[in-house]
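in:
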């Protein structure tokens, strides 16, 4: 498996319809936190969106929801969290894929996934994809055929988030831990409750709590079993920002 981080000019993606024209007149930045589902026709993603100016209240956003969905081709818009201090919304978004993105997904054959770091600003887009190397190369060739300028920022066999230090976690445990960390479950003070996190992961709170405790137990046991403080692996991580 391979992870590749690319950099694009935002105007180039606007010309292809991948970034909505005029979007950055209202917003400063969009960051992908997690891709929950990706198909040719649509995608379900957790996003951090930074607004220009004061944030709307949850009630105001709800009243504007229909207009916003129509404006940006959204099939679903759910407010997960407001962060007035940083002017950020955390949103769960189900969105139709524009033609340019659908073509790239067809080339990928469902074998690659957008992952972090993935950030859009008015001038540039940093986009990271994880998947089998041959499918990633196929997508890069497709971008070249479309004459879309891009720069490879980082290419590595290691996922950006790493593997939790080699702890014996299942794929599902890693997924749930990553989502809990992203949404602030481990922040102090905690930014999301177990009940809310469980709803977003499609599990009951008791089942999710048990899964998190087992995953945390693996990590704690590994840390306590180590005779020395953990050292870095030596792999440089280019966060591209």
């Amino acid at each position: 498996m391979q992870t590749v981080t690319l950099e694009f000019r935002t105007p180039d993606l606007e010309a292809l319809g991948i970034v909505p024209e005029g979007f950055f007149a209202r917003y400063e930045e969009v960051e992908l936190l997690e891709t929950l589902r990706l198909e040719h026709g649509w995608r379900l993603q957790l996003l951090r969106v930074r607004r220009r100016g004061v944030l709307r209240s949850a009630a105001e956003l709800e009243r504007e929801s229909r207009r916003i969905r129509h404006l940006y081709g959204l099939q679903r818009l759910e407010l997960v969290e407001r962060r007035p201090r940083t002017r950020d919304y955390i949103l769960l978004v189900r969105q139709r894929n524009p033609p340019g993105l659908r073509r790239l997904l067809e080339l990928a054959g469902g074998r690659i996934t957008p992952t972090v770091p993935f950030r859009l600003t008015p001038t540039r887009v940093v986009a990271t994809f994880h998947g089998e190397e041959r499918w990633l190369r196929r997508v890069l060739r497709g971008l070249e055929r479309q004459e879309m300028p891009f720069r490879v920022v980082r290419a590595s066999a290691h996922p950006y988030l790493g593997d939790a230090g080699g702890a014996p976690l299942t794929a599902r445990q890693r997924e749930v831990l990553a989502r809990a960390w992203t949404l602030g479950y481990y922040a102090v003070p905690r930014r999301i409750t177990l009940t809310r996190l469980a709803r977003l992961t499609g599990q009951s709170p008791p089942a999710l709590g048990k899964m998190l405790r087992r995953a945390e137990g693996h990590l704690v046991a590994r840390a306590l079993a180590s005779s020395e403080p953990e050292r870095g692996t030596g792999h440089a991580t280019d966060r591209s920002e």
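note: The radius of gyration is 19 Å.
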